[in-house]
Amino acid sequence: MAKRRAFGSPAGRIALLHALAHIELNAIDLAWDLVARFTGEGLPRAFFDDWVEVAAEEAHHFELLTGRLAELGAGYGDLPAHDGLWEAAAATAGDLLARLAVVPLVLEARGLDVTPEMAARLERVGDAESASILYEIYRDEIGHVATGLRWLDRLCRARGLDPRATFQERVRRFFKGDLKPPFNHEARNAAGFPADYYEPLAMRERPQPLISTSS
Ligand SMILES: [Fe+2]
Ligand SMILES: [Fe+2]
Questions:
Q1: pTM to 2 decimals?
Q2: Closest CA relative to residue 99, chosen from 21, 195, 173, 177
Q3: For residue 7, how far is its CA from the centre of ligand 2 (angstroms)?
Q4: What is the pLDDT of residues 85-138, one digit of tens each?
Q5: What is the Å distance from ligand 2's center to 6 Cα?
């Protein structure tokens, strides 16, 4: 629920760090949910190992952010937080491919798009400590997107499905709304995430009619 308010004020930075801490807390639960919920699908051991590792990284991110909040005289739970991430989890609880499409490959990939600008804004107002935490999280999240894509592709192939078409179909069915450009192609490429998966789902600019044809 971080508003686009001035990061120059401590309150604005606390709101941002609090919103990010809430996302990371949800991300811990989402990683463990992947480990616990889909045990009946004959998944290999490596699937569980990967998501346990992601869960540990999300816990580290939560600790980095709550540590920084403490330095600023605040703590997790001080502010309200929205439920968007958990709603996505609930919506995809019955479909592992939808979960992988929506959580790592839409929501975490969206984090890659917006985090560098947030970190740069923090640097510009002189908060290098918070900025460096965001950069560390950003580097790890590239790995989480890569992990999500690797498993989506692998599970689709094992089930005789086309990974790209399946990704697009699941996002259209389970994710409300279009994906928001501009995309951070550099980070998405670093995660091995091909643009032809997500570009076709991007929000289109609505063309303005040049002339009204109604008469
Ligand atoms: Fe994270
Ligand atoms: Fe993550």
A1: 0.92
A2: 173
A3: 24
A4: 888 899 999 999 999 999 999 999 999 999 999 999 999 999 999 999 999 999
A5: 26
